[in-house]
Amino acid sequence: MLASPSVDPARLPALLQAMPKAELHIHIEGSLEPELIFQLAERNGVRLPYASVEALRSAYAFSNLQSFLDIYYAGASVLLTEQDFYDMARAYLRRAVRDKVVRAEIFFDPQTHTARGVSMETVIRGLHRACEDAQREWGISAALILCFLRHLSEEDAFATLEQALPFQGQFIGVGLDSSELGHPPEKFERVFARCRALGLHRVAHAGEEGPPAYIWSALDALQVERIDHGVQALKDEALVARLARERVALTVCPLSNQKLCVFPDLAQHNLRALLDAGLCATVNSDDPAYFGGYINDNFLQVFAATGMTAAHAWQLASNSFEASFAPEADKRAWMARLESVFSDYSAL
Ligand SMILES: [Zn+2]
């Protein structure tokens, strides 16, 4: 393993783009570009409250999590058939391959669709088929994580889990997303316990806009294996010590944090501080169509803004493999590719 790769800083952007990486925090509905929304609306005869692609894109000027979620759910309303879900996931996976993503663990929000009368089967089959085809055609490893919407009740989450169980082989875990404030993790303690008993992986959004206390309860009440976002952890020394000791990964999303004003600007993002504190932080795109960029845009912009180095790039890519739920043999192969790309960029 390269402890401190020496790379000409001028080559760092190219290295960030070329290095293999895992993306562990991507909401597939958040990858819907305005062009695809319009295409699907036309195919399905859905009327959109926007006159054009440009009008929809300009409506993306939201300023906080709730105003973002309002438009996010409106965009998802065009998804009706299995082919729609397939097309959405395929568009994301094609883009991820270009960014040298070798493993994608993709969140989906079934309640956004089942509440509109779309069946669980339609959602999961379309997404899963896109993952399988992408693996076969492009070599990217992709898996699905079913997320419960935390602004809904735990009973609703239980009902959603029951609907998904016939397809248990087609998703690897569960997560918790949507509006964080006012919906602490412990609200979902029983349904996560059930998922744990079923052998499903568990992750949860915590410590994005919410306090460090939500990260503690995601760990203790939900027994999650990763924290999505978690950037507020640095406010709590004891929490940082625990996350470092237990190697609990944080799936950080710099451009999302910037867009939702979690930090006033990217230069003040704490990603570098999280790494310096010994935490298993990773870089991800969250909702790339809405937040101004896919995973490589996130890497390029946060590195440019904070002055991180090739050593940080190495750490972030290697953390992404460590934190993924992929088989160990795959992780070893990806680490070998990472080493090979770094040695190409170090050998001058
Ligand atoms: Zn998210």
From TrEMBL:
HAMAP family associated with the record: Adenine_deaminase
Transmembrane segments: none
Source organism of this protein record: Simplicispira suum
EC number: 3.5.4.2
Site keyed Important for catalytic activity: positions: 229
BP GO annotations: adenine catabolic process; hypoxanthine salvage; nucleotide metabolic process
UniProt name for this protein: Adenine deaminase
Catalytic activity, as annotated: adenine + H2O + H(+) = hypoxanthine + NH4(+)
Cofactor info, note text: Binds 1 zinc ion per subunit.
Cofactor(s) essential for the protein: Zn(2+)
Record: residues binding substrate: 287
